[in-house]
Structures are given as structure tokens and as C-alpha cells.
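Renewal narrative, Specific Aim 1. Our central claim is that a sequence can be written position by position from structural information alone. The example that follows is taken directly from our test logs and has not been curated for this report. It begins with the C-alpha cells describing the chain, in the order in which they were read.
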């Protein structure tokens, strides 16, 4: 069913009676050409691009819960491509370009809003580092502007510029960055994939990847065994658990990250703002709630739950740049599981098992990567070759030393 202004008018006149479900609820087939384990943003985007770009249809997406229940529906919705490392920039820029046309492509309103992402700097050293990042972006044709304090003040006058510990000196602005509605992205890709023949199997958990003679043959699920020629693991925070069933140990650790939403207030924050002297980021949703987050919980866990100590740490950082919101009430907060890689950058690659492919290591940055990840993973699955924009995102970089360490913190996943 195509969504348009005419279908809206038609439904309004007909009493909203003719809407059809956005995707089917099919029974699993005995066999698929490709099974994707994980119905988050990345699994659904991969299925969509496999069907759309490569004409493949005999595909299943296995989702142990419901579509949008994982991190794709739990994140703080920031979309950007302001990366510094040459291995990352082309990939994230491809993803941002796909975001820019995504609503037309999917015929679905994902509420993409290019309101800008502003990274604040608080010292001379940090200014130089941001200038370097901006130059690296410019060399790859990515937009970025280094703003001084007055220019930042003009955009966001309510910040605490004179903070005793972390005075704001300026910021790096990417105007094409912004936000999108997280679960709408999952729904849009699910609808697009389904309409091209992909089976989306909710409440279907992959229990065991079956491997015979070094080659995948299928997946044991709670709904029985399903044969497959190729299998893609796209399980984000649960990647290590799924990979373990095929005997793989990966350079990934899972941690909880929390998101926070306040009560709705009048429009205040015009863009996404990040605090450079800590790790705090904030934007305002179209409903008026302040949407924000900070660092990981610093211990490994598969529990997608919020907890109170992180509230205090997060709010402390908020107060360092925005004391003006101190009386706004927190409405809710929750957690999601992050698949943190050893260098903070993702992996899109084949594994040593024939027919088994890997898409993981998204850390906190996987939402913005959703279309790019799906596009490049679909390319790999369909053609058995790496997409040029993702050619650095290899699994063996941790053996060869070609790591892509944006944060410069070394092999400490919880610090990336
Ligand atoms: C609080 C928070 C804030 C964030 N903020 C941002 C942000 O602002 N910008 C940004 O770019 N990124 C952000 N992220 C990161 C981003 O959300 C994730 O990196 C990204 O969503 C992960 O990819 P996904 O959508 O495929 O994951 P998910 O939605 O988690 O999908 C994985 C799916 O696999 C399923 N699964 C797992 N095991 C199995 C199994 N055995 N069988 C079948 N299915 C299985 C899960 O149920 C899940 O639905 C944030 C994350 C969180 C939690």
C-alpha cells in the first residue's frame, strides 16, 4: 500500500478502515537463500537492500522479540558523519547520503531532521583536535564548520559559556547531521523489505547456527530448523551470544547504554549539542521532550535495563553546560545493549566459516549507520565482496593492527 496525501484523504473519508498491516506475519519456510539473525535496524536494512539492489527475495529476518524492540527503538536518534579516521569517513558519509533520500526511497516518514550536530570544545587543545577532525572531513567532501565562541553563542545562547571548569570556547558544526525517529526507521525498512518478498519472522529466536564441514547449513530456532545457504549475524548487543553458537569468539564486549527523556517544554534546543569535556549529548524531540544520554554503564552486561547511578552522572554533565534545565523533570529512561568493539569501529565482513557473515561492533554509533550498514552488508552477502565504502571494516584488523581507533583509547571497549 503506497502512502501519500491521497491515501490519507481517502482513509479519512472512509473512517480509517482500509489501512493494511505494514508487513505480513508469515510462517517460516523450510529453506532460505539468506537468513539474517536480528530484526533491528541493520538486519531489516540489509534485507531491504538485498531485495531492492540485488533482486534477492528468498530471505528471512529472524527476530527473537518484536520489530523495534532492540537498540534501534531505544537510541537517542543522532545521525551524523563527522568522523576523523579514513576507514570510517567514507562509510558514515555514504550512510548519511542514504538518510537524505530515505523517506522517498521507503515511502515512509522516518522524521529525518537535518537540524545540525554541534560538538562543543572547551580548551585550545580540543579546538585544535576538532580543527583536525573538520579538515579530515573536508578532505573527504564532508561538510563541517569550526565555530568560535560568538558563533556558538548566537546559535545556542542558553549554554553556560563561563562555566568555571569547562568554559565553552566554540564548536564543530555539521549542518547535515541531525535526528530521525528511531523506531520509524525499523518500521520503514520492515515494510519495504516485506513488500519485496522478504519474510520477517518475529518471535523467532536463533538458538544455534548449524555448521557442517566448515560451512553453514541452517539455523535451529524455537520454531524448528530452517535451512540456509548464507547466514548474516546482525544481532547488535547479542552478537557474541549468537556467534558463540557457531563456535566463534569475537573482539566484542556488550555494555548497557541508557537514554533519558524529560517532560515536554517549549522549543529550546535547535540542534544536537554534545559536551566536549565529558560525554553528554542532547536534542529536543518534536513533542518537546529533551532527549539525552551520556556514557556507558562501565561493566559488561546483556541486560537492556536502566538504573539510577547513571542518572546522576548524566545529569551532572548536563548541568555543566545547561544549568537552565535543572528544574525540568525527567520523564523516563531505559537501557539498550551496545556491541562495543576493541577499537570503537564496526565490523562488516565474512567469517572463517563458509557462508557465515558478520555485521557488528556498532558501539553507540549504530543508529546513524543503519542505511549504510544495510547497504554494505547486502553488497557483501550478495556479491561476496566488500563494498568500497566499508573496505576498512574488516574482522582481521585486530590481527593485522589496522585498527580504526577514533577515540584513541586503545583496546578498551568501554572507553570508546
Ligand atoms: C541508549 C542508546 C542511545 C544510543 N544513541 C545513539 C545515537 O544517538 N546515534 C547512533 O548512531 N546510535 C546510537 N545508539 C546505538 C544504536 O542504537 C545501535 O548501535 C544500533 O541500533 C544497533 O543496531 P540494530 O538497530 O540492528 O540493533 P537492535 O535493534 O538491537 O537489533 C538487534 C536485534 O537482534 C535481535 N536478536 C538478538 N539475538 C537474537 C537471536 N538469537 N535470534 C533472533 N534475534 C535476535 C534482538 O532482539 C534485536 O531486535 C544508541 C543506543 C542506545 C541503547
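The sequence written for that structure reads:
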Amino acid at each position: 500500500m503506497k502512502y501519500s496525501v491521497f491515501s490519507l484523504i481517502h482513509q479519512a473519508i472512509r473512517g480509517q478502515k482500509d489501512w493494511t498491516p505494514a508487513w505480513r506475519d508469515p510462517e517460516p519456510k523450510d529453506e532460505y537463500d539468506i537468513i539474517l539473525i536480528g530484526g533491528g535496524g541493520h538486519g531489516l536494512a540489509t534485507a531491504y537492500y538485498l531485495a531492492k539492489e540485488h533482486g534477492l527475495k528468498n530471505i528471512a529476518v529472524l527476530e527473537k522479540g518484536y520489530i523495534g524492540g532492540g537498540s534501534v527503538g531505544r537510541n537517542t536518534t543522532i545521525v551524523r558523519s563527522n568522523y576523523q579516521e579514513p576507514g570510517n569517513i567514507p562509510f558514515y558519509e555514504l550512510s548519511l547520503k542514504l538518510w537524505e533520500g530515505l523517506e522517498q526511497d521507503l515511502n515512509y516518514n522516518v522524521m529525518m531532521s537535518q537540524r545540525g550536530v554541534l560538538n562543543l570544545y572547551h580548551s585550545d587543545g580540543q579546538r585544535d583536535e576538532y580543527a583536525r577532525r573538520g579538515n579530515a572531513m573536508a578532505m573527504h567532501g564532508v561538510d563541517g564548520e569550526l565555530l568560535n565562541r560568538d558563533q556558538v553563542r548566537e546559535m545556542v545562547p542558553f549554554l553556560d559559556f563561563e562555566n568555571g571548569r569547562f568554559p565553552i570556547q566554540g564548536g564543530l558544526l555539521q549542518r547535515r547531521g541531525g535526528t530521525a525517529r528511531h523506531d520509524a526507521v525499523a518500521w520503514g525498512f520492515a515494510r519495504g523489505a516485506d513488500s519485496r518478498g522478504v519474510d520477517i519472522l518475529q518471535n523467532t529466536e536463533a538458538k544455534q547456527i548449524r555448521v557442517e564441514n566448515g560451512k553453514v547449513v541452517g539455523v535451529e530456532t524455537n520454531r524448528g530448523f530452517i535451512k540456509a545457504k548464507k547466514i548474516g549475524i546482525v544481532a547488535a548487543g547479542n552478537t557474541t551470544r549468537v556467534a558463540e553458537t557457531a563456535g566463534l569468539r569475537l573482539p566484542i564486549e556488550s555494555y548497557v547504554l541508557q537514554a533519558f527523556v524529560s517532560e515536554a517544554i517549549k522549543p529550546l534546543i535547535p540542534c544536537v549539542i554534545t559536551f566536549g569535556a565529558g560525554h553528554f549529548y542532547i536534542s529536543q524531540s518534536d513533542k518537546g521532550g529533551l532527549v539525552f544520554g551520556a556514557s556507558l554503564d562501565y561493566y559488561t552486561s546483556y541486560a537492556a535495563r536502566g538504573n539510577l547511578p547513571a542518572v546522576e552522572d548524566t545529569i551532572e554533565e548536563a548541568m555543566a553546560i545547561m544549568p537552565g534545565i535543572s528544574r525540568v523533570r525527567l520523564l523516563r529512561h531505559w537501557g539498550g545493549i551496545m556491541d562495543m568493539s576493541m577499537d570503537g569501529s564496526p565490523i562488516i565482513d565474512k567469517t572463517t566459516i563458509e557462508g557465515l557473515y558478520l555485521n557488528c561492533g556498532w558501539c553507540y554509533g549504530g543508529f546513524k549507520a543503519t542505511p549504510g550498514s544495510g547497504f554494505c552488508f547486502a553488497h557483501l552477502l550478495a556479491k561476496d565482496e566488500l563494498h568500497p565504502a566499508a573496505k576498512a571494516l574488516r574482522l582481521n584488523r585486530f590481527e593485522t593492527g589496522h585498527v580504526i581507533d577514533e577515540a584513541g583509547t586503545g583496546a578498551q571497549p568501554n572507553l570508546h
